[in-house]
Amino acid sequence: MTMLSVWHALIYIGDGAVLLPGALLLLAWLLASPATRRVGWWWLAAVLLVSGDVALSKVWYMVSGWHPAGWNFIGLSGHAALSFLFWPSVAALVTGRHQTGLRVVAVGLGAALALAISISSWVLRDHSLSEVVLGALWGTVVATVFLALTWRRLVQAPLASSWMIASMLLLMFLAVGHEFPSERVLGWIALRVSGHAAIDRRPNPGPQAQLPKMEADGRQTGLPIAHAHPASNDSVNGAHQE
């Protein structure tokens, strides 16, 4: 496995097609038990806050074309923001019954995975550096508040169970490799909100790292195939950026 294929695998793990269904499944597990129901409502608020702000930042650019002067920025990176909310939080929730030291290590590993996903989003040119950094910071802030509110409560009412973990892993397995059509959805919303015939879109943020095409015998031809997460272009129905 090459480093390029690792980057592609990581960016899929941070896609909304994986994280949003995962967040909903986690919400269902939390709300199912009276002992964790309040944590579930906090989790719903955290997910809505992060995903909502990501969406609003992108729709704002599409409608107005405004961005900070000198910045290559069209909205918060959803890959970075959702990853820094989801993975550290899930790590803390599923290790709720364990000692504090193990939970801290688990949260650290979740944050490390989120960082790797964020880096892959920049390396593969799905997002500019400013979009990745600001998205990661926003996801970290919300995750920190969520964990501060739930840390002690989940020690008293742990969430983790074999069924819960198995269902999460199965969902991840089924969702990895798919893309959430956020760009098309937000583009449609921006057109309806603005009433314009077209919306503001950014040209490609840079050369994309592409996987080589493989011949039937397994040899590389040197010809690139379409990038798993291509950068945006000028059409509303263009490529996906989350």
How would you describe what is shown here?
This protein is mainly alpha-helical. It has one domain (3-180). The protein has 8 helices and 2 strands; from the N terminus they run ααααααααββ. Strand 1 and strand 2 form a beta hairpin.
Quick recap:
InterPro entries: PAP2/HPO, PAP2/HPO_sf. This protein is mainly alpha-helical and 242 residues long. It has helices at residues 3-13, 16-32, 37-64, 78-94, 100-123, 129-156, 162-175, 182-194; strands spanning 212-214, 220-224.
Helices and strands in order:
Elements: H1 3-13, H2 16-32, H3 37-64, H4 78-94, H5 100-123, H6 129-156, H7 162-175, H8 182-194, E1 212-214, E2 220-224
Antiparallel strand pairs: 1-2
Helix pairs in contact: 1-5, 2-3, 2-4, 2-7, 3-4, 3-6, 3-8, 4-5, 4-6, 5-6
Question: Main traits of this protein?
Answer:
two-stranded antiparallel sheet, globular, mainly alpha, PAP2/HPO, disordered C terminus, 242 residues
Main beta sheet strand tally, sense and closure: 2 strands, antiparallel
Gross morphology = globular
- Approximate strand percentage: under 5%
H/E element sequence:
HHHHHHHHEE
- What structural class should be given to the helix and strand makeup? mainly alpha
Low-confidence stretches: 204-241
Q: What's the arrangement of strands in the largest beta sheet?
A: 1-2
